[in-house]
Every structure is written in structure tokens, then in C-alpha cells.
């Protein structure tokens, strides 16, 4: 842990805290002595996380919130202020869904809208509602859970890539707007993490098989990703890329901007024939 650590004894709100990375963040924050408002569209799952936090000796509450609905995010902010002894000083916009397996033009508009409503509007609402409140604190933080998909532009993931690119752009913009204040912003950009994203999402056919195999073989644990995200915020890092492949993709795209799409397409075709 770091000097003046924000993630120690924080008053945190986490969206999508009922599973995967959100749940791991809640448990890690509890280990750091933080109070955690665990929210999820699935209240039972949020309750489960909150009770695991309490079992660790921490304090947590479960609140239902669908991040794709502005009025529910506004109600969440009011509820968090009611539950916590002092105002929220850490917000983690984590809730998100996975969509993939079809090319642009074949992906249904319903799947585009579902992804945009949760992955993009969820981050917009979370930042819109909480950023003005966080600015009132001496020290505060926002973590937006983006993805390596924010910049990797892998084929057959159009809606996911687009919404995660937007989550990164929002984080970068917020970081600039909040520079000179006490609010730090971190965009978490992992590659594969072992969670329930495939079971909960709409990744189709062969892409789902490939995703699950790769997640089993090389996925990082959600606990490790959670620790790295919180440490990154404490170190005031805007970008947290927990895995080496994320950092490699980031660099290759910058080194070879015009060849990048052809390389990505080729790798995707090779991997699909190797793993499926
Ligand atoms: N697992 C990965 O490989 C990976 C990689 C990069 C980024 N991410 C991102 O991490 C975040 C968390 O995903 P995860 O992998 O832990 O998946 P997960 O499916 O295990 O957890 C996601 C949680 O979000 C909740 N949720 C879904 N829609 C919601 C809504 N409208 N409102 C509130 N909650 C909602 C679900 O109920 C679930 O509890 C997502 O933003 C995802 O895009 C995941």
C-alpha cells in the first residue's frame, strides 16, 4: 500500500459488484479497511458480495442498480450518501457485458443497443452523477473498468470495442478536467480475466469457445486484477494494463499504426483455426 493511499479506509461505490472483477474489488477494498456499497442489477448477487465482505470483518451494503438507467444511478448516489458515514470518495464504474462473435453488419442492432446501454451509458451516468460529488472531496478517485478492447480493435467485437474505446476516452477526458483537483482517475484495461463475463454475455459460437479456452489458459485472476487496479489508482496512474499482452498491443499499435489492422486480422484467423 502507498503513502496517502486513497483505497485504504475509502468510502466506495462499485457497480456490477455481484460477480467477477467487481466482486474482487469489493473484497480487496474491504481488506484495505474500506466501506463498500456493492451494487448490481442482480440484487441477490450484490447481497452475496456484501455478506462475503462482512465475513472478512468489513462493512458493506447491497443496493440494486441498473447502470443503464440514469434515475437508478442518481438514486444510488443518494442512497450511498445515506448509508455511508461520510460522502463517497471512490467510485468504480465496473458493470459491463461481453458481446462478440459477429462482424459489423451481422451483429444485431439489438446487441449493439444492449452493449451501448450498459457499457457506455453506464460509464457516462456513473461519471456524470458522481464526478461533481467527488470534486467536493479533498481526495477522491474514479476507476472506470475499460479493457484492452478500448484500443485493440480485435475483429468480431465491434460493439464491445466501441463502448470500451468510449470508456477510455471518457476516462482520459475526465483526468484532464479533474487535473489540479484532488480527484484521480484510472482506466483499467485488462485483457482476459477469469470471471463470468462469457456466461453472462452474448458472445456467439466459435468466438465464445475461443474466448473460454483462452480465459482458462491465460486469464488472470480477478483478485490480482483488482489489486493492480487499486494500487494503480493510489499511484495516480491513468492507465492500468495488468497484463503484458495489453501493454504489447498498446505499443504495437503506436509503432505500426497502418499495418495494425492487417496484423490483427491475420492473428485472429490463425488463432481461430488453432483453438477451435
Ligand atoms: N473478464 C474479462 O476478461 C474482462 C476483460 C476486460 C474488461 N472486463 C470488464 O470488466 C467489467 C466486469 O466484468 P466481469 O468480467 O467481472 O464480468 P461478470 O459478468 O463476472 O460481472 C459483471 C457484473 O455486472 C453486472 N451487470 C450487468 N449488467 C448490469 C447493469 N445493467 N447494471 C448493473 N450491473 C450489471 C452483472 O450482473 C455482473 O454481476 C466489465 O466492464 C467488463 O467489460 C472484463
UniProtKB/TrEMBL annotation:
Domain of life: Bacteria
Enzyme class, UniProt record, top EC level: oxidoreductase
Name of protein: SDR family NAD(P)-dependent oxidoreductase
Stored CDD domains: SDR_c
Keyword hit for Chaperone: no
Family to which the UniProt record says this protein belongs: Belongs to the short-chain dehydrogenases/reductases (SDR) family.
E.C. number(s) listed in UniProt: 1.-.-.-
Keywords: Oxidoreductase
Keyword set includes ATP-binding: no
Pfam families cross-referenced by the UniProt entry: adh_short
Gene3D superfamilies the record matches: NAD(P)-binding Rossmann-like Domain
InterPro entries in the cross-refs: NAD(P)-bd_dom_sf, Sc_DH/Rdtase_CS, SDR_fam
GO molecular function terms attached to this record: oxidoreductase activity
